[in-house]
Amino acid sequence: MDLTRAHAESLDAADPLAGFRHRFAGDDDLLYLDGNSLGRMPRETPAALARVVEQEWARGLVGSWSSWIGAATRIGDLLAEGVLGARPGEVLVSDSTSVDLYKLLVAAADARPGRDVLVCCADDFPTDRYVVAGVAQARGMTVREVPADVDEGLDPAVLAAALDERVAVVVLSAVAYRSGALADVAAITRTAREAGALVLWDLSHAAGAVPVDLTANGADLAVGCTYKYLNGGPGSPAFLYVRRELQDRLRQPIWGWFGQRDQFAMGPAYDPVPGIERFGVGTPPVVAMTAVEVGARLVAEAGIGALAAKGRALGELTVALADAWLTGCGVTLASPRDPARRGSHVTLAHPQAWQLTQALVDRGVVPDFRTPDRVRLGPAPLYTRFVDVWDAMDRVHEVLATGAHETYPTERSRVT
User: Fold this and answer.
1) Which of 21, 40, 115, 228 is catalytic?
2) CA distance 400 to 395
3) Which one is catalytic: 20, 102, 125, 229?
């Protein structure tokens, strides 16, 4: 691979997604490689929020509920078609990822009576493991944590060996949060189904960056956040997916009026509405969902295929530069080397990763740190240029070669 900056510039000149960069706010001098943690703000978002606040809320007041009432399913359908490869009526924007995970996990466990084991990955995102443990404790079930290589991800054969007639639900991430390792959603779902279990996928590091093709892959259940590659803003509401054939067989545990049949009848007993809306709970956050819709439309317009192709190319450039410039500085690749097995972020390991991260931020490069000694680089294909990656890696090399990171404190801040 040509590793000159001129070649990176030529890749940008030929990039079919290049025009999307100008549709996001931000300082062009900032090398932002943390789109896998918090996406940039679309330039259209403030006007969309102002419309909801200044017109629909300020002037329309309660009358605006006639259009707001269907927003969770309308935006869900947008995500289904443009991002997730799902069918209409299978995706709902609702609550947080953790709450959605809890709702679907309990519903799925109830749908597998007589089975008392929940399976998850030992290296999965903490919230997922905590929710699994909490549900298991409350229900008198057992958690079976499957080991995974911290860099290469979960071995499907190891997972298969952990499945038996006791397993009710398997909770896994499509893209590993630490390494970016990409799971084979279709194969794992088939394996679990053969064992009689349901799989609940966390798509937080996948949605908007890699194709997940929920229908084609036969997925049963999924959740995901909207503030990473979907650019919905900090704390924006999550989404959940339930395969159409499962919807009326599942009853989620939080019985709220937005999941109730004929909700304005204010009936005395809970009777869940048919379809995806039964997985709703309380009044949805209308203003926050507006920002989600803006981000989701941009991703759908760009196309997941094009985004995934550029994400792989950005990752390949990152890995090639790391191999050429950083191996003599104590850096090792902490992600799968094969781009087909990697999501849209690349992780590097270094003994002083936390100090390195601080030094980079002070030099206009924004990655993030993950334990124990990882620096994650998340170039978001919607707005990250190839020269951004080149310049960022050049600064990583400069910091390590000069030892500039060694002057930074080893104590971590609350946010890393």
Assistant:
1) 228
2) 9
3) 125
> Rounded to an integer, what distance in angstroms lies between the CA atom of residue 377 and that of residue 370?
11
pLDDT for the residue numbered 27: 86
Among all chains, which residue has been given the structure tokens 């900056």?
Answer: 5
Quote the radius of gyration of the chain (alpha carbons, Å).
22
What is the predicted pLDDT for the residue at 51?
97
Strand partners, 69: none
- For 52, the token pair is 């909801």
In the predicted model, what is the mean pLDDT of the chain? 97
| Known active-site residue 227 | yes
Please write the tens of the pLDDT for every residue from 56-102: 999 999 999 999 999 999 999 999 999 999 999 999 999 999 999 99
Strands 31-32 and 365-366: parallel
Place of tokens 């609550």: 95
Coil/strand/helix, residue 260: strand
> Can 24 be counted among the known catalytic residues?
no
User: For 142, which DSSP code?
Assistant: E
* CA–CA dist 63, 416 (Å, integer): 43
**The residue to which tokens 């995901």 are assigned:** 224
Cα dist from 361 to 209, 227, 355, whole Å: 24, 21, 10
From 376, 385, 386, 388, active-site residue: 376
Please report, as a single letter, which amino acid is at residue 211.
P
Catalytic residue among 77, 124, 128, 202: 202
* 376 noted as active-site residue: yes
A 10 A CB-CB count for 284 gives 20
Q: Which one of 227, 229, 258, 386 is the catalytic residue? A: 227
Q: How many CB atoms lie within 10 A of CB 90?
A: 26
Burial of 209 (0-12, 13-18, 19+ CB in 10 A): buried
